[in-house]
Every structure is written in structure tokens, then in C-alpha cells.
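Morning!

This is the sequence you dropped in the shared folder:
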Amino acid sequence: MATAQTDAASELKQVHNIRLWHAPDKTRLVFDVSADVVHRVFTLQAPNRVVIDIEKANLSMALPALDSSNAHVSSIRSGRPRKGVLRIVLDVKKPLEHTSFVLTPNELYGYRLVVDLSDPSVPQIAKDSTHSESIKEPRLDQAQTTQTMTPEPSAEVPTLEPVVLEAQPNQQLVVAIDAGHGGEDPGAIGHRGAREKHVTLEIAKRLKKAIDDDPRMQAVLIRTGDYYIDLHRRRQNARAKGADLFVSIHADAFHKKSANGLSVFALSQSGATSAMAGALAAKENASDLIGGVSLANKDQVLAQVLVDLSMTNTISESVNFGGRVLQELSKVGRLHSKRVEQAGFAVLKSPDMPSILVETGFITNPGEERKLRTARYQQQIADAIHTAIAKYYEQTPYYNNASYAAPRVASNSASSSPVYHQVVRGDTLSTIAQKYGVSVRTLKSLNGLKRDTAVLGARLKLPRSAVDTPVANKPSRSAKPAVHVVRRGDSLSKISARYNVTIRALKQLNGLSKDTLYLGQKLRLPGGLAVRDVISQHKVVRGDTLSEIALKYGSTEKKIMQANNMRNRTVMLGQVLKIPQ
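The structure's back. C-alpha cells below.
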């Protein structure tokens, strides 16, 4: 008889541990079990209870103590309603909805039964009490204002005075800060026990304070406590809170203790820029497998990730923003990579929000683990990221009334001094060349450029002839804000790429709730003047080719040839070409 009872007990699957994670909108229970289990979850009323029955299971541990401050569960107890069935009863403080699933073993855990209890009274995007302040929405009904900027002249280098146009009132920049991992997913673990999820949350909180102290911007924390949020939902939370930038904070790990340094990553749709970037993306994307994600809504998630036609422009903005962060972090510590790496990070796949992932060091390196645990180093990283965000803000027309307009040289410049153009948002080499009546080839040769890329903030040297012979068709100060008339084949992603503005800025400025456009629809453009739209003629200068001219104005060789009745692709020096709109 005793032998039969022993055999029956050995057939029961063991529940070794129960962990609870409390988030503002839900509570998660994780049961560590010895094997896959059959279970059932249901609710009872008067009083409110959640019941979890696990077939052929035995509880081999004491029930966990509860945090009395949690919003959902008041007590927990166990029992056996019938032979071989383990019942866990949760007394809950309000009616809760439930989902449950079993996770297979991974590198950290064995089999796990996960039960999520969600509060239906909280909106899908949780608003926790630590962030009760409201996010200011951009106001589109305010009268436009004009900002005049007069740089101080220099005796050695001529200064450039912007042609100032009417622009939108200053907008407050909203930054979403995502502390990586959390709850069931500890992230990387250092040799002295430091956990990535704790380090990232501390840095995120310090960064939030630094941003909130800056009147030009406001921060929102995606995760405010020790709980896990699905990767796709982190993006959803940021978008719902009106974020303009997304910064995900992490700490790196490697099997060799010697690996060290800070890194910045952006999204790539065409593959990783290095083996390290690819490996890191695979590790971070696996967080959902560790943190525990139900596959019930996987089709919806895939649709949201795959249908992002506007990614090209957003990725470009992300790399630009990430470069500024990398530059500031280089003042804090050694860089692991001196460029913004790119790979397919799931958490960065927001089509309308520049997004970066910051690796604050290798927690598996004993020296960097020690620094990452100190308040001083955490504050240095937070301050560096805030400084980079501030610099990004200062050169973003939609937020600070910076102008896309062509600069002009101050009249007090010396004729023998070199003249420079500082690249602002919206500039390309072709539009800069057109502004000053020079060729792209001349600009590249004068500045030693190998590519056709104009880096934001860079100073480009200009030939004296570009200053002495001003280009016609300069806009007046009274120019009205530019508009784009939607034509056949247009989309928001194409328009945003053409004018180098974000889709989010276009939608906010025009009150668009969807990505749908209509033929003939007029879209207002942020920053005032759209250089490419006011150009109607081009005078051929030395070095010009038809293909280069077409590239400058976003046109095609065929259209230019038809507009000018050209029989071949040859252009003559001094020839004036009509550029079709």
C-alpha cells in the first residue's frame, strides 16, 4: 500500500516555485513546473476570486508572500478539490480578466505555467500613477509666429544668416524611455549578481528626471517597476503616449569578461551591420521567450511589424539621432563601436518614431559591472543622452522653428575669407548646390566628400563665386508656409522622404488620423519653405550632367527631356532647363 502511494506521488508534476510580478495594469503569476502541465483557469464572484487548477501536480514549496501595495491580489492559498488536482485560489481586489499559457524550457528556466490577470478598468495602454501628468498634444490652431535669428558677425569666417520664414509655434518634444527587460526576464547578469533589468530602470529614471527638468521636452517611462512588457507593446505604449523619440536602455553581455564599451543601435531592414549587431538583436528579440508572451495575437503582431512602408526615413532619422548620442557617450567612457550599429531589433520597429537602443556597457565585464551599479555613472549616462536629445531638438524644425530655407552670407564678410554652409535638416547636396548655383561635383571636390550624403550639422566650404552670384528665386520673408499637392503615386512615406520630415510631423500638422491620402489633397509642410517645389529652372554649370540634374530636383531624365524638347541627353554650359514639377 505504501509503495503504491509512493509511485502515485512520483507521477505528480512538481510546482517548484511561484513568482508574482505586479504591473500597473496587470499581475503575472509564473509557476516553475517539472514538466508540461494541463491546467484550467476560471473566476468566481462574491467574493472575487481567480482559481487555477493544475492536473496531476503537487506543490513542493511554500506559497509566496504578497506585496500588500499591489492593486490586484489580496491573498493566495492552495488546496485539492479532488485527487491529483492542485488548486491555487487568488482572492482578488476587483474583477480581473485572465489568460494563461505554458512556456517550454530556455537557457534560464525550465517549463513554466504563466497566468496573466489583467484589469479591464485600466486602458489597454497602462497609465501608471507615477506618470499622472498629461502629455501635451501639438496645437495646430495657434496663429503662426515668425522667429528672427541674427548671428553675430565674425572677422575671420563669414557668418550665414538664415532666410527666416513663418513657422509653427515651438512644440514640446516627448521622449519615451524604455528600460529593457524586467520582471520574469532579468536580462544579462553580471559576475557579482548585478541584473540588467535593475540597472536599466535606474538609468531610465535618471534620464526621465533630466528630460523633465528641461522645459523644451517631456519624458515618459515605458516601464516604471519590476515587471515585463512585451516588445511590441513597448512600441504601442510609446505611440499612445504621444512620443516623438524612443530610447531603449540596455546593458550588454558577452562570454568573455574582457568585452567592454558603450554602443548605440538603430533598426536595419536589410541585415545587421556587423556580427555583433546581429547577435545582440537576436538576444534582445528573444526577451519575449524569456519574459513570456502568448502566441494568441501573433498574427496581429506580425502585421504591425511587417506593414511599415515609411521605415526608410525613420531609420535615417534614428541613425542621425543615434550618432549624437554616441558622440556624447564617448565623453563618458570607451565606445565598443564608433558608429551606430544596425540590426533587426523588434522593439525599434516603429514606422513613425526615430528609435535607438543604447547599450550602457558590458555588465559581464567586472569593471563595467561595478560602474553600472554606481549612481554617479548612471547619472553620467543619463546626462549624456539628455545632451544628445537637446542637440537633436535644436536642429529639428518641427520643434524649434528652425528653417529649411537657404542661408545667405552676411554683408560684412571679407571677400578673401572662406565661406561655409552649415547643413540643416532638409538639406541634401543637390539642394545646397542649387541654392548657391554650383554643381554637386564642385561641392564634393571642395570638401573632400566621397558620397552624396550631407551630414546634419556639418560645415561645407563654398566657392567664392557661389556667394558673389546669388541664386534667383530666393524666398521673401513673407513667404507663406509651403504645401504639397498629392499626386498619383504619392504616399506619406514618399512625401516624408522627399522633404526629409517625419510622417508623424506631417500627420500632426495636417490633422491626419490615418495614412490614407487623396488625389489633389493639400498637405502643409513643417518648417515653411520646401526648396524643391519652388524650383522651375536650372542653369547648366560646368560638371553638370542630365542624370545629375534630374537627381537634384527629384525628377527624371525623360521628364526633363520632354519639357525641353531635347533629342538626346547632352546638356550645354549655360543652357537653362525647365524642371517639370
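Headline: The mean pLDDT is 74.

More detail when I'm at my desk.
O.
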